[in-house]
Write a structure and sequence with these properties.
5-stranded antiparallel β-sheet; hydrolase; Beta-lactamase; binds glutamine; 313 residues; 7 strands; alpha+beta; glutaminase activity
């Protein structure tokens, strides 16, 4: 078959998978409040190859907040601003095996376990430099825009407002860390930077470009712009692989085998180095806070297309 015929065949297979997963019964444990009870049917899926080829299925233009997916990009900026050693001194790279909001720390090293859970992401947010809170948020937004190749991407003020009013747990976590010397500086500023990043909205079409930018060594394959320094791409992808799916990370790696990060809004971004970025959005969550449909379709995509890093050729 010609390349065009092959591309059509791939597209048809994914269309079929997407259709099947849309109607398949799912075991939803929860929805993020506000996010999704209103639109549990939404199911967007996008892929971007590092060559720039793009595919989209379902509601791939529907916008949703990054939530924890933002932790990937906050960590990227923290690394760039502080370097590898200084960043690791403050936040580890060890999967915690605990839920995303757990109040446990790497006591031996006096730091949160990793930057993909709330405690570690708060420390990463504190490591993002800037003149003040607004400047730090602006730098993060700018970075997300570069990853996605869309200068219009921004924080949704309504989402931010809602999160600021329901964040006692994160506040508690941050104050506890500051009391024990793991977090420095103004807690409200740090929380606001962290939650602003969580409140940046994207579509799966954009998020897949963000994944493809990571897969492409930090250069956006659509715009050709470098979104982060090449030297830290492997650091970011490594923590996605080991810690990106919270306490579901081990099962995810076993079943799907690709570096990814989820958020409680129901989004997942995956980055397969030198190959593709994938994004999926469907709000129903499993017990770990990962999108049920998202995990299911990624498992099938991985099987069908041999995406698992240890798949037999
Ligand atoms: N903003 C949410 C929180 O901090 C994000 C958590 C998530 O996506 N798991 O609670």
């Amino acid at each position: 078959p010609s390349p065009a015929q092959r591309a059509t065949a791939v597209r048809d297979r994914i269309t079929e998978l997407h259709r099947r997963h849309r109607t398949a019964p799912v075991d939803v444990v929860s929805y993020y409040p506000s996010e999704a009870e209103a639109r549990p049917h939404v199911f967007g899926l996008s892929g971007v190859h590092v060559s720039g080829v793009r595919v989209s299925f379902g509601e791939s233009e529907e916008r949703f907040p990054l939530q924890s997916i933002s932790k990937v990009f906050t960590y990227a900026v923290a690394l760039e601003d502080n370097g590898r050693a200084a960043t690791q001194a403050r936040v580890g790279v060890e999967p915690s095996g605990d839920p995303y909001n757990s109040v446990t720390f790497d006591e031996a090293h006096h730091r949160p376990h990793n930057p993909m859970i709330n405690s570690g992401a708060l420390v990463a947010a504190a490591l993002v430099r800037g003149r003040d809170r607004d400047h730090r948020v602006a730098r993060l937004v700018e970075r997300v825009r570069a990853f996605a190749g869309n200068p219009e991407i921004d924080v949704d003020p309504a989402v931010l407002e809602e999160q600021l009013h329901a964040t006692d747990h994160n506040l508690g976590l941050a104050y506890l860390m500051r009391a024990s010397g793991m977090l420095h500086g103004d807690v409200e500023d740090t929380l606001s930077v962290y939650l602003s990043a969580c409140s940046i909205t994207v579509s799966t079409d954009e998020l897949a470009v963000m994944g493809a930018t990571l897969a492409n060594g930090g250069v956006n394959p659509i715009t050709g712009t470098r979104a982060m320094p090449a030297e830290y791409v492997r650091d970011v992808i490594s923590v996605m692989l080991t810690c990106g799916m919270y306490d579901g990370a081990g099962q995810w790696f076993h079943d799907v085998g690709i570096p990814a990060k989820s958020g409680v809004s129901g989004g997942i971004v995956a980055a397969i180095p030198e190959r593709i970025g994938i994004a999926v959005y469907s709000p129903g969550l499993d017990a770990h806070g990962n999108s049920v449909r998202g995990v299911n379709i990624c498992r099938d995509l991985s099987d069908r297309f041999g995406l698992h890093v240890f798949a037999s050729p």
